[in-house]
Design brief:
Shape: globular
Oligomer: single chain
GO molecular function, one term: nitrate transmembrane transporter activity
Largest sheet: 2 strands, antiparallel
Radius of gyration: 21 Å
Membrane topology: Multi-pass membrane protein
CATH architecture: Up-down Bundle
Number of strands: 2
Strand order of the largest sheet: 1-2
Main location: membrane
Structural class: mainly alpha
Number of domains: 1
Keywords: Membrane, Nitrate assimilation, Transmembrane, Transmembrane helix
Number of helices: 20
Family: Belongs to the major facilitator superfamily. Nitrate/nitrite porter (TC 2.A.1.8) family.
Length: about 450
């Protein structure tokens, strides 16, 4: 095919829409067990620590798969790995649906626990679409618009756990446990179809199939593309790992996105067990937290574009720290609610700022950096719930609020990491001059 005959498919807006929809559907698996934890506790007699492992399990594969799949975007543009992850999640949810259809309620017991963990891990693959989408969207948008575009992608996509936490218990209440997961199955099939039609690779990755690399870059530049990969998957991972600033960003994302995921699945248990709220009240409080953190992330990205990512990170982490202190010390329902919302707001704004910093600090390996940051950062959603459950096992009921001291520590460490970035941002990182982001 002649170079001039290459017909570029997609546009920045359509791809942003497709990636956001795909991530929205895939990220719903983060709430696979959280809103229904009380049902499994009743049927299987699980301990608080076992609950923590169960609700956190979808984050394990979702986190680890973000690393290689995010890096693969620098090689293939993102479309294929995005679809692979959604299909893997589909298989996990289908297996869970079949298991519950055949075992619940009479035969779901302690022996079923390992199978629930395994299916949750597979279903969690959908969350890994985040790091793929970050790279895919970054290649479509110019640097000056990436903060807002990535905040829209991450913020609207992150709202999925909140909606799932709100809708899934309602569906289960009306139609039964197994049918609730049938609804989840139908939603991910819809997500796969929509992404298939909208989620196209950036111009460079379309041109490269029809011409040599330099010509593909020239043609892609003519289409407005500014970022270009420098190597394959492992090259991108190793290159981004060699940028030391990748690792403070990992720490920030562990605290804010991983911490957000952990609370999304833990809060229903907290509200019902500590304040003895009704199930629907716990669901509404959790969904409100999740949706606040998700939607305010869009505003956080816009603020980072205008005011600078580091500045917004410091402000948001201070808000998170204040909310965590309140949740740890409070013995009053409404004061704890205020603390929860402060934590959600701080996390959401910071998440919008972090991914503004990724293409700025690691411009020659965006996919690899997105994989490290999104993958290892997401591990917070897997690691923190068992810690929160451990506080309850150790201190009894009072361990529920004391567990939030984990977030005080994470917030303080994250503030230190941002301070390090600010102190060194004028230095040369990996051959690229880093200047204040304004």
């Amino acid at each position: 095919m002649a170079q001039n005959d290459v017909n570029i498919q997609g546009s920045p807006r359509s791809v942003l829409a497709g990636a956001t929809i795909g991530f929205f559907i895939g990220a719903g698996s983060v709430s696979l067990y959280g809103p229904t934890a009380h049902i499994f506790v009743q049927a299987m007699h699980l301990s608080p620590t076992q609950i923590g492992w169960l609700v956190g399990m979808p984050m394990l594969t979702g986190a680890l798969l973000r690393i290689p799949f995010g890096a693969s975007v620098d090689h293939n543009g993102g479309r294929v790995p995005f679809l692979v992850l959604l299909v893997a999640s589909l298989v996990g949810i289908a297996g869970l649906y079949w298991m519950l259809l055949t075992l619940y309620p009479n035969h779901l017991d302690a022996h079923s626990y390992p199978y629930l963990l395994a299916l949750g891990a597979l279903a969690g693959s959908g969350i890994a679409t985040f790091s793929v989408g970050v790279g895919q969207v970054s290649y479509w948008y110019p640097r000056k618009k990436q903060g807002e575009a990535l905040a829209v992608f991450g913020g609207l996509g992150d709202s999925s756990p909140g909606f799932v936490a709100l809708i899934l218990p309602s569906v289960i209440l009306m139609t039964g446990l197994w049918s609730g997961y049938l609804f989840s199955l139908a939603m991910i099939i819809l997500g796969i179809l929509l992404y298939y039609f909208l989620g196209k690779n950036a111009p460079y990755f379309q041109y490269i199939h029809h011409m040599e690399k330099n010509a593909a870059i020239d043609h892609a530049k003519a289409n407005g593309e500014e970022l270009f990969p420098t190597g394959g998957v492992w090259h991108s991972l190793s290159l981004s790992a060699s940028h030391w600033r990748t690792w403070p960003l990992v720490g920030l994302y562990f605290t804010n996105f991983g911490g957000f995921l952990a609370l999304t699945v833990w809060l229903p248990t907290f509200w019902e067990s500590y304040y003895h709220t009704k199930t629907m009240t716990a669901v509404i409080l959790t969904a409100s937290f999740s949706l606040l953190a998700a939607f305010i992330r869009v505003w956080g990205g816009a603020l980072a574009d205008r005011e600078g990512g580091e500045k917004i990170a410091i402000i948001s982490l201070t808000i998170l720290l204040g909310g965590a202190v309140i949740m740890t010390l409070s013995q009053t329902f409404w004061l704890t609610v205020i603390g929860e919302f402060l934590v959600g707001a701080g996390m959401g704004i910071n998440n919008g700022a972090v991914f503004k910093l990724v293409p700025h600090y690691v411009p020659d390996a965006v996919g690899g950096a997105s994989g490290w940051v999104g993958g290892l950062g997401c591990l917070g959603g897997f690691a923190v719930p068992p810690l929160l459950g451990g506080f309850v096992d150790r201190f009894g009921t009072q361990g529920y609020p004391l567990g939030y001291s984990v977030y005080i520590g994470l917030a303080v460490v994250s503030l230190l990491l941002v301070w390090i970035l600010v102190r060194t941002r004028d230095h040369v990182a990996g051959g690229h001059s880093i200047s204040p982001m304004h």
